[in-house]
Amino acid sequence: MREERFRHLRGVIWFIVITLAIHYSYRFWAIHLHYWPIQEWMNGLNQVMASWVFNQSVWVNRHILCISMRIMEHTMWFDNGSGIMINSSCSGDKQILQFALLMLLYPGPWKHKLWYIPMGMLIVHATNILRVVLLSVVTIIEPHYVKIAHDTALRAMFYVVIFALWVIWEEKLRIRN
Asked: Measured in whole angstroms, how far is the alpha carbon of residue 125 from the centre of its chain?
């Protein structure tokens, strides 16, 4: 019983260590090394991903939530005069890469990793769309809370989802030795 509890705690500690290492390594690579040696490819990926997030978020806002808006240069302008601009830092590529690297580094059978990693990447992408849509709602209803929503709760949502995906991996898909 005690051994089982420590196994779970060790797993959570490893999750935190790997996630933080990937997070800070990515930030260093992006900010200080400017994605060297694949700058052009990463900059293009950021732009494509940001465009996907923008277009998919606009679609959800318009067709599911029926939010009225004007679109100008990757910015959603709402009827209250507030807007949300989606740029390359909103692409979600860092979080998608974080999840993929976490799963690649974490032990488990490759037969599961081959389908779980792409599925998880899609879930992290969908989480980013949900994040932008929720930020749109906050922008319309309580525009003075946009910064705190963006910088805290909606950013943390990525890590809650990545942690939940890891828990599913750890508890259901990884075969114990």
From this structure: 6
